[in-house]
Amino acid sequence: MTKIRMNRAIVATLVLLLIQTSILPWLVPSAWSGRLLLHLPFVMTVFVALLGGRHRAFLFGLGFGLLEDMLFYGHMIGAYAFGMALIGYLIGHAFERKLSTLAFVLLLTGVGSGLLDMLVYLIYKLFSLTHLSASFVFYWQVLPTLLLHMLVALALYLPARRYLVRQVVSQSEGAEGN
Amino acid sequence: MIVIFKLFGTKRLFILMIGLILFIAVMGFTLRRSGLTWPERFVNDAFGTAQGALYRPVGAVAGFFRDLGRLSDVYKENEELRRAYAKYTQDQIRYNEIASSNERYKQELGFKTRQEQLFTYKYVISQVIASGSNPYDKTIKIDQGSHDGVKTGMAVVTVDGLVGLVSKVSEFTSTVMPITELDPTSPDTIQISATVSGKEQQVFGIVDYDKENGVMRMSKIDENANVAEGDIVVTSGNGGVLPKGLVIGKVLTNQVGDFGLTHTATIQPAAKFDHLYEVFVVMTPDPDQP
Description:
The complex is a heterodimer.
Chain A: E1 2-4, H1 6-22, H2 24-27, H3 40-52, H4 54-71, H5 79-95, H6 102-126, H7 134-164, E2 165-167, H8 171-174
Antiparallel strand pairs in A: 1-2
Helix pairs in contact in A: 1-3, 1-4, 3-4, 3-5, 3-6, 3-7, 4-5, 5-6, 6-7
Chain B: H1 2-8, H2 10-31, H3 38-69, H4 74-109, H5 113-116, E1 122-131, E2 140-142, E3 155-157, E4 162-169, E5 174-178, E6 192-196, E7 205-210, E8 215-222, E9 232-235, E10 247-256, E11 262-269, E12 278-283
């Protein structure tokens, strides 16, 4: 029996969000800055969905999506909040608490990232805030971001699991933690 | 359809629908709003402090390594700068003379104080503290807010040229929307009226950004206007949104536009829009204030 530490997950994601907004832009070369748009809170949402279940992932995705939308409020608020909450819930609904191999986590992160970016694209298209074609967006931004998200998930999954999950042998011992 | 119902259950689908409607309402509500509520300002300012503490040192380190890579160009650059400086000194003398005579003419013509101060802009230096990763809302954050006198709609420039407009302001930070986001057909766009430096009286056009090709376009240029390759495009100040004389970019090509009546020029933006470090907020004197 395992349990996720939500407090730690939230603190870690806040730190990752700071890194994403203030450090990563410097590491991406100029030519790729419009194409590699990382969302570290999204990767964490996938982890939370797999380790902690769908309801936690829903709230987690909603909260951090909303935070990101608010911090970089350009045209409107809500696209990432909606997308991350929905995809966190769906992944949690389908795969929560199953024994997941690393390859499977990477696959889920990749598919989820693609779905999230296309969903956000469709929302902006719906409000006619973007006029790029879907195939262009997919090739130009979604695909490279998706691959990079998978790499990030590869780097983060094992440390995140060690840091976030606590083994609960029985109810009485669970209170002590480890 | 039945498969979907079986997979999720009616209750979940119902909640999903409600959620969808709720979110579309939120998005629609926040779409054309310019102010911020206090929770938004609070979150922005709280994060802004931490972001600023990270962004600047990292930028300094990154800049150091970039400079190391460019050491070989420094000699050539220095040579060019010297030449430019010599020309600048000559121009400065001419400028002083013209400025003083201009001042005298204004007095002789009886300009009102308001008209005289219309084009005295204040450039306030400001640090970039973070940049967003939403591909359709690429915004950057700067560390000056309403506390420092920043207002919505002010222009933000670097030493190279126009970067964007202040779109949202909180107490100690504000959000800047780059001109690359100003889509001419989107519902909340701002049109930049532009002209060509040195030909201000004859050239006029409207600038927007072509996302797929990564260049800017200046449309609705009169077909008799003489726009050549390499001309510097600057803001004209007409329309009252942006101050005049801010550099936008350099003309690449100029051809007949969509309807054959006007010309459309493509422009290479002068400013870079990523890896920004220091920007200036251009503060215009408020004409409504005494």
